[in-house]
Please model this.
Amino acid sequence: MSTEERLRPDSLLLLLHNMGITDSRKALRAEEIPIPEKSKIDETIEELEKYERDGYVKGLLGEDGFKRYYLTDRGIIKVCASLS
Model:
């Protein structure tokens, strides 16, 4: 993947924000998040887990047994701060 195709830092948070993935009812599996390179899903999961440790996203197990992620209040603040 070229540098241009990679998500810029925090762009995954911005993407979740722009998609309105801001509460548990809207949470998505990592595979459902439209990233440029689907074959790099492992990197996306690693990034989501890092953001979860930092408190920017929350991960939860869905009824289907898959982990789903959504943007927390802290993540929304981080995205909004990056836009101002």
Q: What stands out?
A: The CA atoms of residues 10 and 31 lie 18 Å apart. The chain has one domain: 11-83.
